[in-house]
């Protein structure tokens, strides 16, 4: 649905709460088998990655990363976390995602980008191929 130029003058960028709602809907639309891999992994939305993440990932800028999966996946033993082990988490970084959405000429919606980031952060962690992740995204788009 196209938005008239006048409608844009009253719009604001999605807030952290808006992003959390979009991410929850995107996660719920993923195939159940894929969601099951993550257990009840929380999806945390932050403005930017923290300084430790920027340093660990050797990023040139806090805009260089859209999301991150931290933790140990179920195939690696996360069903019974070790004492002191942090829980699995998926991080989405609002400002870098908005920047990517605004600057790119790909024509993707914000929801599609968030879905893509979720699938790739979770999928890479579990060793899925790019083809596997494309199929998961397509399944989510079709509502399979």
The sequence of SSEs as H and E is HHHEHEEHHH
Strand content: 5-15%
Total helical segments: 7
Radius of gyration: 16 Å
Uncertain ranges: none
- Helical residue percent? 40-55%
CATH fold annotation: Zincin-like
CATH second-level architecture = 2-Layer Sandwich
What structural category arises from helix and sheet content?
Answer: mainly alpha
Distance between the termini: 23 Å
CATH class, named Alpha Beta
Read across the widest sheet, the strand sequence of neighbours is 1-3-2
Shape: globular
How confident is the prediction overall: mean pLDDT? 83
How is the biggest beta sheet arranged?
Answer: 3 strands, mixed
What is the count of β-strands?
A: 3
Q: What is the total number of structural domains?
A: 1
Defining traits:
Zincin-like; three-stranded mixed β-sheet; 7 helices; 3 strands; globular
Record the SSE blueprint.
Layout lengths: L4 H4 L7 H13 L3 H6 L5 E4 L4 H6 L10 E4 L18 E5 H10 L6 H16 L4 H13 L2
Parallel strand pairs: 1-3
Antiparallel strand pairs: 2-3
Helix pairs in contact: 2-6, 6-7
What can you see in these coordinates?
The protein is mainly alpha-helical. It has a single domain, classed as Zincin-like. The protein is 47% helix and 9% strand. α2 crosses α6 and α6 (110-125) packs across α7. The longest helix is centred in the C-terminal third of the chain and has 16 residues, at 110-125. The mean pLDDT is 83.
